[in-house]
Amino acid sequence: MNIVAQQSSTVLVVDDTANTLELIKTMLGGEHRVLTASEAGTGMKIALQEEPDLILLDIRMPGVDGYQLCRQLKADPITREIPVVFVTAMDEEREEAKGLELGAIDYITKPLSPPILRARVRNHIDLKRQRDQLRRLSAVDGLTGLANRRAFGEALEKEWRSAVRRNTPISLLMTDVDDFKQFNDAYGHLAGDEALRRVAKALAGAALRPADLVARYGGEEFVILLPDTGANEAALVADRLLLAVRRLAIPHEHSRGWQFISLSVGLASARPARHVGANELLDLSDRMLYQAKNSGRNRVVT
Ligand code: GH3
Ligand code: MG
Ligand code: MG
Ligand code: MG
């Protein structure tokens, strides 16, 4: 039995022929949520909004054809990983090769056989789910269970593009544990690991919104990505994070001026534009962190 495919899954069908859309909807409707689009522009829009598990794509359509839409889907980081299956009456070898070379995962020719279409769709959705799960696992930091730096980088790119599109602000909090080398030296590396785990948990638990991401950026550095969040709101979050870590009250007798483990935080906010990269926000938060360190640690600098 196919357990994975039984979770609710969404299939997008893009085809300029209303009959084909109806036909495929009938074939798959019992098993999946089926969305339809009769031209490429709408198809792309739905793909971005709904992030379906699979896209069934006609080739010959007036205006933007299926090949071009496939190229667009593969070029956008939001839709890149969604498997595309061409469903077409064009059964020539070179058409099929072209479709597969564009990154489509499969090529099905009409007339459609309902059981074969259903089985292929199910298999592709299963594989997609497995790939997603592997990606999730490879995105986790082993010590803390937080997102790792790689995952953070991907999320930042994705949120940046989405913020450009929606014209919304985005904020970053770059944090670094104060005098942590001293902590390791005084209490030992294992105690250091345990302290990092507790700090990570405190950060993750500091009542963030579902879209926010807390990641381990490096050794004792954590970064918090706040989509749709301006500077004022981000400053409140930063204060909450500082407080959450202070509340842990992990003794640290050798920290400068503070008897417990504390954080320094660099805050940067931006309203992303197409011509600036996400890295500039990262650089800015890093510079702010540096200032937080230089102005005495255990504080937020904006
Ligand atoms: P500052 O306040 O300027 O940040 O001083 P610091 O001592 O925290 O900065 P520094 O970068 O010199 O030291 C970071 C320390 O964090 C050194 C390293 O041993 C420790 N560290 C990094 N990753 C881990 C880890 O996974 N476990 C433990 N126990 N320690 C770690
Ligand atoms: Mg057509
Ligand atoms: Mg550091
Ligand atoms: Mg440090």
Automatic annotation (TrEMBL):
Enzyme class label: transferase
SMART domains on file? GGDEF, REC
Q: Which PROSITE patterns match?
A: GGDEF (PS50887), RESPONSE_REGULATORY (PS50110)
Molecular function GO terms recorded: diguanylate cyclase activity
Would the keyword Transferase turn up in this protein's UniProt record?
yes
A Pfam family per the record: Response_reg
Q: Cross-referenced NCBIfam families, in alphabetical order?
A: GGDEF (TIGR00254)
> What PANTHER family would the database entry show?
DIGUANYLATE CYCLASE DGCM-RELATED, REGULATORY COMPONENTS OF SENSORY TRANSDUCTION SYSTEM
Tell me the protein's name: diguanylate cyclase
